[in-house]
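sry for the spam today, last one i promise. C-alpha cells for design, 199 residues
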C-alpha cells in the first residue's frame, strides 16, 4: 500500500468498526485492493474512499448505530441513520484527507462516494462501483457472514440462499463482474467450512 494510504489508515483507525462489525474496515479495504487488480478504477480515489467510508458511525449514539439491526425500526428511521453516518463520514474524511495533504483535486470525488455509499441507487463511476462492491463483499467474508448469522439468528442455508438468490443475482447489486465472481467464490468457501464443521 502507498505510504499516504497507510497514513490515512492510521488516522482513521480510532473511528473504525463502530457498529459491532470488527474487521469491517480492513476486510472491505482488502476486497477493494483485490478488485483493483482485476478491474479498472483509480486507486487514488478508491482506496481512501473505502478506508474512510464508515468512519461516520463513530459519531452516532450506540442506539442509532445499532438501529439498522433492530427489526422493530421503521424504514424511515433506518434511512435517517444511514444518512447520518454518511454525512459524519464525509466530515471525518475531509479532515483526514486535508491532514495528510491529499491531492485536493481528488478530495471532492472521494467525499462524493462516501456521501451516498449506502443510499445511492445508481453507480456514478467505476470508482463508486468498486467501493460499494467491496463494501458489499463484507457480507460474504467469513467474519461478515458469521456476524450476520449471530445477529439475525439466520441458519446457515437461510443466509446462504439469501445471499445467492437475492443479493449476488439481484440486478444492480454488484457493479463489477469480478466482484460477483469473488462473491460466489467466497460463498463456496463458507459452504465448505460449514460442511466441514457439521460433518
Ligand atoms: Fe456505511
Ligand atoms: Fe461499510
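last one done:
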Amino acid at each position: 500500500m502507498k505510504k499516504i494510504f497507510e497514513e490515512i489508515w492510521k488516522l482513521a483507525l480510532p473511528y473504525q468498526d463502530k457498529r459491532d462489525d470488527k474487521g469491517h474496515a480492513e476486510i472491505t479495504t482488502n476486497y477493494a485492493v483485490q478488485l483493483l487488480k482485476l478491474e479498472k478504477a483509480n486507486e487514488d480515489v478508491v482506496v481512501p474512499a473505502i478506508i474512510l467510508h464508515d468512519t461516520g458511525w463513530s459519531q452516532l449514539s450506540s442506539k442509532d448505530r445499532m438501529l439498522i439491526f433492530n427489526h422493530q425500526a421503521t424504514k424511515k428511521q433506518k434511512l435517517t441513520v444511514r444518512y447520518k453516518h454518511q454525512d459524519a463520514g464525509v466530515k471525518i474524511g475531509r479532515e483526514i484527507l486535508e491532514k495528510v495533504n491529499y491531492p485536493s483535486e481528488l478530495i471532492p470525488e472521494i467525499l462524493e462516494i462516501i456521501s451516498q455509499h449506502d443510499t445511492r441507487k445508481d453507480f456514478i463511476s467505476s470508482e463508486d462501483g468498486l467501493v460499494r462492491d467491496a463494501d458489499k463483499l463484507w457480507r460474504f467474508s467469513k467474519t461478515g457472514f458469521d456476524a450476520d448469522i449471530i445477529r439475525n439468528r439466520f441458519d446457515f442455508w437461510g443466509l446462504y440462499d439469501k445471499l445467492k438468490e437475492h443479493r449476488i443475482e439481484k440486478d444492480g447489486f454488484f457493479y463489477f463482474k469480478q466482484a460477483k465472481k469473488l462473491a460466489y467464490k467466497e460463498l463456496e468457501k463458507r459452504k465448505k467450512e460449514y460442511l466441514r464443521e457439521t460433518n
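The radius of gyration is 17 Å. ok im logging off now
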